[in-house]
Amino acid sequence: MSSKFEHSVSYPSSVSALWSLLSTEQYWRDLIAATNGDHGVLESFTLDGDTVTVITKQGVGAENLPSVVTAVRPGDLEIPRTSTFTLGGAAITGRMEASVSGAPATISGDITIAGDPAVAQYLGSANVAIPFVGGKIEKAVIEQVGHLLDAERDATVDFLGR
């Protein structure tokens, strides 16, 4: 069984200003350094017309994990993540998918960025296939994803202000 989530963040800029960042490799390097510098790395960046595909490896240190997670999966978590964004008219649509290396945990969702000022809306689900505690871990995963999306938004706003 999976747990659904919704999350949104707003930006003090237009969709086109966000696209100018999202479509550059340096943005992604800077974003990882700002939000997950100790555990994150940009594995690949591809810009193909109006589509960007970004593959990262992010992580969460064991000291930042709830005990329900470390009881099942001790140590730091390594999280491969793929994000795809496509510019279409006045909106950006996308998809994100992530997993936890060595654990039966996945998260995926759709992304829509629209409006002026722009708002990013994330709709997805987390799935942790561990009997009895999977639901509790899914809630912890969703909470951590919300923190990450907020941190990415804050860093992006800083980059827009430069």
Outline the fold blueprint.
Blueprint: E1 2-10, H1 15-22, H2 25-36, E2 41-48, E3 51-60, H3 67-72, E4 77-88, E5 91-99, E6 105-114, E7 119-128, H4 134-160
Antiparallel strand pairs: 1-7, 2-3, 3-4, 4-5, 5-6, 6-7
Helix pairs in contact: 2-4
Overview of the structural elements:
- With about 160 residues, this protein is of the alpha+beta class.
- It has a single domain, classed as Alpha-Beta Complex (Naphthalene 1,2-dioxygenase Alpha Subunit, Chain A, domain 1).
- About 35% of the residues lie in helices and about 40% in strands.
- It contains four helices and seven strands.
- The chain has helices spanning about 15-20, 25-35, 65-70, 135-160, and strands at about 1-10, 40-50, 50-60, 75-90, 90-100, 105-115, 120-130.
- A seven-stranded antiparallel beta sheet has the order 1-7-6-5-4-3-2, covered by helices on one side.
- A hairpin with a 5-residue loop joins strand 5 (about 90-100) and strand 6.
- Helix 2 crosses helix 4 (about 135-160).
- The longest helix is centred in the last third of the chain and has 27 residues, at about 135-160.
- It is globular and about 45 Å long.
- The model has no long low-confidence stretch (mean pLDDT about 90).
- Tally of separate domains: 1
- The percentage helix is 25-40%
Q: Major sheet, described briefly?
A: 7 strands, antiparallel
Strand content: 35-45%
- Indicate the CATH topology: Naphthalene 1,2-dioxygenase Alpha Subunit, Chain A, domain 1
Major sheet: order of its strands? 1-7-6-5-4-3-2
Order of helices and strands: EHHEEHEEEEH
Question: How many beta-strand runs?
Answer: 7
**CATH-scheme architecture:** Alpha-Beta Complex
**Gross morphology:** globular
Uncertain stretches? none
Pfam families: DUF2505 (PF10698)
Protein name: DUF2505 domain-containing protein
